[in-house]
Amino acid sequence: MNNEERVCAIYSRVSTEDQAREGFSLGEQKKRLEDYCKVMNYKIYGFYEDGGISAKTGNHRPEFERMLEDGKNGCFNTVLALKLDRISRSVFDMERINKFFEENNLTLICLYDQYDTSTANGRMIQRIMTSVAQNEIERTSERTKIGLDGAIKEGHIPGKTPVGYYRDNKKLAVDPLSSLVVERVFKSYARGISHYKIAEQLNNEKALNKTNWTDNSIRRILDNPVYKGDYLSNKGKKSEKYYENVCPAIIDKDLWEYCQDQAPRNLKHYQRNKVYLFLQKLCCPKCGRTMGGKATRKKNGKVYYYYHCIFCKKNIEESIIEEQIIRDLNNIFEYDAIVHQYYFPLIKSKLGIKEKNYEKELNNLENRKNKIADSYIDGTFDKEIYIKKRDEIEEDIRHIKRLMLEEKQISKMTFAREDLLVDRDLKYINKIALPLLYDKFVDNWNDTSREKKNELVMDYIDTIELFEKNSNYYVKKINFRNSFYNKFSELFWDGFIDYDISKRNDKNAPTVRFSEYIPKEKVKEHINKLRHFYTVDIYPGVFDFDKGLLDIQMPSTVELVRISPQEKVKYENGYHGISEVNAIGVDISKKEFIDLDEDLFDKMIENIEEIMDENDELYLIEDK
Fold first, then answer.
1. How many helical (H) and strand (E) elements, i.e. helices and strands, does the chain have?
2. What pairing do the DSSP bridges indicate for beta strands 107-110 and 78-81?
3. Mean local confidence (pLDDT), 308-323
C-alpha cells in the first residue's frame, strides 16, 4: 500500500493513571498523530477519542466501537495510534481486534512502537508488544492490590465514610454523636425490632437530621463488619478478602454476630404488641426449641404472660421464671447501671462541657408551686387537682436535688476504674441517709418498667435453659452474652462490682452486698473518698456463705453498706463455709446528712463543701 492510498482514523485514549504517569493528554496525542499524517502525506478521515477509560477487558469504549463500525463500512483503511497500549493491553482482546482488521482489510500503525500490521514482521512485533503491555498492566494491578492491602491493614479504609465515623488523616474515627445512632440500631435489632420499625423510629425522631431512613439503610448498617472493627473488600467476588481489627469498633463483635443470627427471628410475624420479658430466650425443657409468647387478660384487667412450645404443648408462666432468677436479674440491673458509667472521663467531659443550672430549675419549680397554691386559694383548682399538681412538682424538685447531690459527689472522684464501686456505694448510702430525697428512686429490677426489663434481658442474656420435675419448671442454666459475661467477670474479680449474696430461698433475708477482695491500700483510698460525704468505717467480722449469715459488731446507728473478704481466696465452686470479711458501715446518726426538705437543702450543700475542705487528711480505723 503506497502513501497516496492511506486514509487514516486517528485514535487516542487516556485514563487518569496514564495521564499522570506518561503526561500524554488527548490533545497531545491528537496533535502528534495529526503532524505525522502531514509529514507522511496521509489523508485523515476522522478523530476518535476515549477520555478517562482504561483499556482493560470488558470496559466499554464508545469512540473505539464507533471507529470499528466506520472501518467495517469502508470509511478508512488505516488506524493510527500513538502506542499499541492505546488500542489494548490484553493479548486476548488484541487477537480479536486483529481478526476484525484482517476481515475488513484494515491496517494498524503505532507511531512510537514503529510497526505496521500490513507486514508479517509488523504483526509479529505487535503480538510481542501486546504481551509486554498485558504484563505491565497485570503487574500494576498486583502492585495496586499490595498497596491497598497494606493501606487497609494500616487503617485506611477505602470507599464512602460509613455512618458513625468521620475521617481523621484518612483513617476512620468514631463520631461521638452519629455512633450512638449506629449503636442503637444494633441494640434495637438484637431486641427483636425489624429493619422497617427501626427506620420508622429514626425517621420520626429525625435522627441525625435525616428523614430518609429505610429498611435497606438499616440492613446495610447491620451487615457492615466495619462496625465491629473489621473490613470486607470485594464482597461476593473471587478476590474477596476479610481484614480483622483494622479500624475502631462502635459495637463489640459479640453483638454484631448476635444480630446476624437474629435475622430469621425478626420477621414481621415475630412482632408483638405486648412486651414479653424473655421472648426468644427460653428453651423448651423437652425439645430445646425457642418458646413463643402469649398473654391473657383477666376480668380484673391484669395481664398474665406465658411462654409455650407449639411442638411439645408446654406452657410456662413468666412470673415463675422471673422469681427463680430475680437475683441474677438484679445483678444485670446493677451491672447495666455501672457499665453506662464505665468511661468516667466521658461523663466528666460532658459535665464540663455543659453544666446545668440546677438552681435556676429549682427556682422555676418553686415559682410554679407557689402559682398553683395561689390558684387553689383563688378557687381555680379544686383540692384534688391541687394536691396532684403539687405532688408532681415536689417529685421534680426531689429529682433536681438528687442530680445536684450526685454531681457534687462525682466531681470529687478521680475518674479511675476504682471509682465505679465508690459511685455504687454512694448511691446506696444516699438512699439510706436521705430517704426523703430518694423515697421514689427507681434502682432495682422490680421497680423498673417491662420495657426496660425486656431491654436488659435482650442485651445481656442469650438463652435460658429449663428442666421439668414433677410437672414444675425450673431454670437449669442462664447463658449470658459473652460480651456481658467477660466484662462483668473482669469488673467483679477486680473488686469493682458488688452483688447480693443473701439467701436465695429466703425472700425476707436482709440484703448483703458483696464484692471480691480488694487490697488494703485500695480499701483505704475507697474509704477516704466516701468520707468526703459520709461518716464511714470498716468493721471486721465473719460471714457464713452456706447459711447467708453475717456476724459483725457494729453500733446500732451504723448501717451495713457492703462486705468483702479480708484475704484473696482461691476456690473452684464458689465460697463455702465461714470466711473473715471486712464490712463497710455508714453512721446515720451523724447529722451532716439528715432527711431533707426544701428548707434544709441549702444547708446540706454547705455541709458538703465544709466536709470536702476539712477532710484532706483522712484515716482508716485499725483492724482489731
1. 21, 21
2. parallel
3. 88
Condensed to tens digits (0 to 9), the pLDDT of residues 125-134 reads 666 666 665 5
Cβ-count burial 121-148 (b if 16+ within 10 Å, e if not): ebbebbeebbeebbeebeeeeeeeeeee
- CATH number given to 3-150: 3.40.50.1390
pLDDT exceeds 50 at position 207:
yes
User: Hunting for cell 429529682 — which residue is that?
Assistant: 399
- Catalytic machinery residues: 15
> Of 71-75, 447-451, 593-597, which has the strongest mean pLDDT?
71-75
Q: Is the predicted pLDDT of residue 526 greater than 50, yes or no?
A: yes
Summarize the confidence of residues 425-430 as an average pLDDT: 80
Please state whether 91 falls in left (phi above 0), alpha (psi between -120 and 50) or beta. Answer: alpha
Domain boundaries, the chain: 3-150, 165-270, 337-438, 501-614
- pLDDT greater than 90 at residue 63: yes
Of 426, 419, 403, the residue nearest 522 (C-alpha): 419
Cell of 56: 482493560
Adjacent-strand bridge partners of 290: 283
Distance CA 265, CA 284 (A): 17
CATH class held by domain 165-270: alpha beta
365: cell is 419549680
